[in-house]
Design brief:
44% of the residues are buried. The longest helix is centred in the N-terminal third of the chain and has 17 residues. The protein folds into 3 domains: 105 residues, 4-hydroxy-3-methylbut-2-enyl diphosphate reductase, catalytic domain (Cobalt-precorrin-4 Transmethylase, domain 1, 3-Layer(aba) Sandwich); 98 residues, Rossmann fold (3-Layer(aba) Sandwich); 84 residues, 4-hydroxy-3-methylbut-2-enyl diphosphate reductase, catalytic domain (Cobalt-precorrin-4 Transmethylase, domain 1, 3-Layer(aba) Sandwich). It is flat. Strand 2, helix 2 and strand 3 form a beta-alpha-beta unit. With 315 residues, it is of the alpha/beta class. Helix 1 runs parallel beside helix 11, helix 4 packs parallel to helix 5 and helix 8 runs parallel beside helix 9. It has a 5-stranded parallel sheet, with helices on both faces. Strands 3-2-4-5 form a 4-stranded parallel sheet, with helices on both faces.
Length: 315
């Protein structure tokens, strides 16, 4: 029977997610309903449903947005072609791209303009990867694994650089970069790691927790890259781990013979979902629910400039 629940820290919302969600909420206040959002503003089904209830309309493409309407770009970023299509439809656009993703886009353009072939380490089909690739589609080669890094064939005199998706496994990315550097010693990379501080911190917090728990629950949606990476970190260390949307996703058979459960949440999961999971365990007689350690993140990103200007004009 479970006797103790330990909460990883830090967990949950990062500064980029906080900024993106605030952007949609405040855009609704400034522009009124509806405000359109291209793709999910962040990868969490609860957040998306709550914003829909407030008047946000989520679409897959710019073509679904009525001409002249207000459109928010998600935290994952968009390709230049999406911006061009929005301008052609005379949309009022608000860019909620995480500043750390914008930094990767800037790197991609800089390397491409300098004539480099760019290895983008990331997951095919992820919106962030699609947006980054769109910055320099002719120059970018996608690598998803060490196996891909070992197979990639490029001329020896190729000017080569690498960039990465921001929500990857720190350990796996280091292994991929090591393989690339071994095969292509001349490869260049960013001065500072592209994997964002929140992704790194949440993986570190899970690693710190694993020696004390027998099972890890990760709260996050199944399309959340950083949440999936937290599950992988635990499983790589031999600790069973499961990704759940909320307390309703807990399978009590997982808990058979388990006395200490760890709980964390991905960077797009609201803290209220963690509280719900804690209450789920308390309702089943678990006497001890506690923070493993308390780590404070003080990163804050300003709201998009276009939204701040609109708010000042409306004041």
């Amino acid at each position: 029977m479970v006797q103790r629940v330990l909460l990883a820290s830090p967990r949950g919302y990062c500064a980029g997610v906080e900024r993106a969600v605030d952007t949609v909420e405040r855009a609704l206040q400034v522009y009124g309903e509806p405000v359109y959002v291209r793709k999910q503003i962040v990868h969490n089904s609860h957040v998306v449903r709550e914003l829909e209830d407030r008047g946000a309309i989520f679409v897959d493409s710019v073509e679904e947005v009525p001409e002249g309407a207000t459109l928010v770009f998600s935290a994952h970023g968009v390709a230049p072609a999406v911006r061009d299509a929005s301008e052609a439809r005379r949309l009022t656009t608000i860019d909620a791209t995480c500043p750390l993703v914008t930094k990767v886009h800037t790197q991609a353009r800089r390397y491409a303009d300098a004539g480099y072939t760019i290895v983008l380490i990331g997951h095919a089909g992820h919106e962030e990867v699609e947006g980054t690739t769109g910055e320099a589609p002719q120059a970018i080669v996608l690598v998803e694994s060490v196996t891909d890094a070992e197979k990639i064939e490029l001329p020896l005199d190729t000017r080569l650089a690498y960039i990465t998706q921001t929500t990857l496994s720190v350990d796996e990315t280091h292994a991929i970069v090591a393989a690339l550097r071994r095969r292509f010693p001349q490869i260049e990379g960013p001065e500072k790691e592209d994997i964002c501080y929140a992704t790194s911190n949440r993986q570190w917090a899970v690693k710190e927790l694993l020696d004390e728990v027998e099972l890890l629950l990760v709260i996050g949606s199944h399309n959340s890259s950083n949440s999936n990476r937290l599950v992988e970190v635990a499983r790589a260390a031999g600790v069973p781990a499961y990704l759940i949307d909320d307390a309703g996703g807990i399978d009590e058979t997982w808990l058979s013979g388990v006395e200490v459960v760890g709980v964390t949440s991905g960077a797009s999961a609201p803290e209220r979902l963690v509280r719900d999971v804690c209450n789920w365990f308390r309702a089943r007689g678990v006497p001890d629910v506690a923070e493993h350690r308390s780590v404070y993140e003080d990163v804050v990103f300003k709201l998009p400039l276009e939204l701040r200007r609109a708010e000042r004009s409306a004041a």
